[in-house]
Amino acid sequence: MKKSKKIISVMLGAATAVCLVPGGALSEEALLKGDMNGDNVLTQEDVSLFNDRLMNRAAFTDKQYALADINGDGKVNVYDLMRLKKNTYGRRDTLPEGTWLGYSSAGTKYYTFSGGKCTTTEEKTGKTASFDCSVKDGKLSLGTNTSDISWNTSENFVLKRSDGSTEKFCYYGKETINWSELYTGDWLAVNGSSKRSFNIRGVSGTVNGKHFTYKKNGSSLEFTLDDGSKLSATVTRIDSMHLSMKWSNGTAERFTLRNVTVKDGITYINGILIANKSYSLPSTYNPGAILPEAMSAFNTLKADGARNGLSYWITSGYRSYSYQNQLYQAYAARDGYAKADTYSARPGYSEHQTGLAMDINVAGDNFGLTPESKWLAANCWRYGFIIRYPQGKQDITGYKYEPWHVRYLGKELAKEVYDSGLTLEEFLCIDSKYKN
User: Fold this and answer.
1) Choosing from 402, 412, 416, 425, which is the catalytic residue?
2) Last residue of some domain: 209, 229, 257?
3) How many CB atoms lie within 10 A of CB 219?
């Protein structure tokens, strides 16, 4: 069975170059049009084999015929032979210029060729390297490495390295790609009740299954879809995890970064350990105490509070899975499970098990009327904490208002959440609901 082909379109001003990247990995059959002998290099032998088959001295195999329509007009004829000769001989010693996307089994790299120099950037890591480059007799040299270069069109070519590996290149444009300005990640785009999922890796990605590439042009992003259609958006960075996209068609969306990783049964969203009614911790997760960084932050908060005439202490910090189970079952026996779920977490779903949450002073409604509560709400973010279950957000967090319950996030993130006026669930676009 043939592999399905993904088509990545690359914007070239008024033109669109197309690279075939099948199933996320390179398919030998998609590398070079006119490659009759299947060695991933265009040579005199390919021209001769093509000519023999065109003159009916031999028959095309299915694979050869699929690669024989070089000009893409749906026919295999002498015009394709002329294009093959041009690609084999006419572009033989053409040195690439500008920025190119290089696809190989090792991953994607960005190459910028300029004035006999080449700079590469790894898409995953942003690692860069620079080389002298030149081309002679169909051999492209990058530093000490030499590869066969074969052109499909002026906008894409293939390198075959000495170890037999191949890399396919698509033209991106004249500008250099700045890795630090890319929007790599999984994003949820929301406009009212409408939601779209963007998966971006470097300068390409998918939106609801449709592939695209994009370029940055000042504060705007210019997108090109598979079919060559284009759309631009003005992008505004809200904070480290949010963007605002105002599209050229008049619509606007809020983008929320939502990279979900599950490790050893623990869910991290954008690197943040999550424990709520939707995301549980395994019973074996046991830091044993409030984590040192959170404890140090609380001690600083406590000392600053004292200088303001306020007194703070931890009434409940780390709780093990088994201890949370004891608490929850006791509350459920007293008030019933439905009511207990409004103020107590089921075992495995409590933030206290993370070692990053704590109840301050008195875990009761009267705490909200105290000067300590008011100062805590206004200032805890300065120390890396947020009020985890704010007033009026019960339907979102899953818990009643708890002015005494704080969660440590670190100073930068806590400030972003505080400034947003959102709960952690809203900030990350996640829910907090038991599945049963």
Assistant:
1) 402
2) 257
3) 11
Count of structural domains, the chain: 2
Are 278 and 371 part of one and the same domain? yes
Q: Which domain holds residue 221?
A: 182-257
Q: Tokens for 124?
A: 């995953």
Amino acid at 144: T
Tokens at 243, concatenated: 């963007």
Structure tokens that stand for 74 in this block? 């749906």
Average pLDDT per run of 10 along the chain, which is 436 residues long?
Answer: 31 34 42 94 97 96 94 94 96 95 94 97 96 96 96 95 94 92 95 95 91 88 88 95 95 97 97 98 97 98 98 98 98 97 97 98 94 98 98 97 98 98 98 95
Give the up-direction half-sphere exposure of residue 359: CA atoms within 13 A in the CB hemisphere.
Answer: 18
Q: Please tell me the distance from the alpha carbon of residue 247 to that of residue 267, in angstroms, as a whole number.
A: 33
Query: Phi and psi for 8 in degrees, rounded to 5?
Result: -105, 115
∠ CA 134-136-140, nearest 5°, is: 50
Tokens of 363: 């875990």
Active site residue 402: yes
Query: Last residue of some domain: 205, 231, 257?
Result: 257
- C-alpha span between 266 and 263 (Å, rounded): 5
